[in-house]
């Protein structure tokens, strides 16, 4: 089924999708680095998770404003793929591939959302579009 009347909203909805994706990643960075909100699994994080939190905080903010969207989203897609394999699939003694069983659903969704944004760009409401780079 085709909805041609919705295509006029595509650039703005792409910008909204980019902003929400960046905001969700940004909140993980805030939780990991600044311990807000207080979550037990981010209480004593190892250096690798600290680095991931830094990426999520800085690049999530860049994604929210739409600055260097394609590069930012590509780096975040790689980080989320790494997070799935290292933090979810191989966190036990034996690998658990199913995301429902290893808790990696969000990492996979973030990975492919960011991969899409790296190809699609920031949309019409972004710093990239304002600077004429889109």
Salient structural properties:
134 residues; mainly alpha; 6 helices; 66% helix; 0% strand; globular
The H-and-E topology, N to C, reads as HHHHHH
Instruction: Report the end-to-end length measured between terminal Cα atoms.
Output: 29 Å
H/I helix tally: 6
Flag low-confidence runs. none
Going by helix content, strand content and strand pairing, the class is: mainly alpha
Strand fraction band?
under 5%
Quick one: overall form? globular
Describe this structure as you would to a colleague.
The protein has 134 residues and is mainly alpha-helical. Helix content is 66%, strand content 0%. The protein has six helices and no strands. The two termini are 29 Å apart. The model has no long low-confidence stretch (mean pLDDT 94).
List the helices and strands and how they pair.
Layout: H1 10-34, H2 47-65, H3 69-89, H4 99-102, H5 105-120, H6 127-130
Task: Give a brief description.
The protein is an all-alpha fold and 134 residues long.
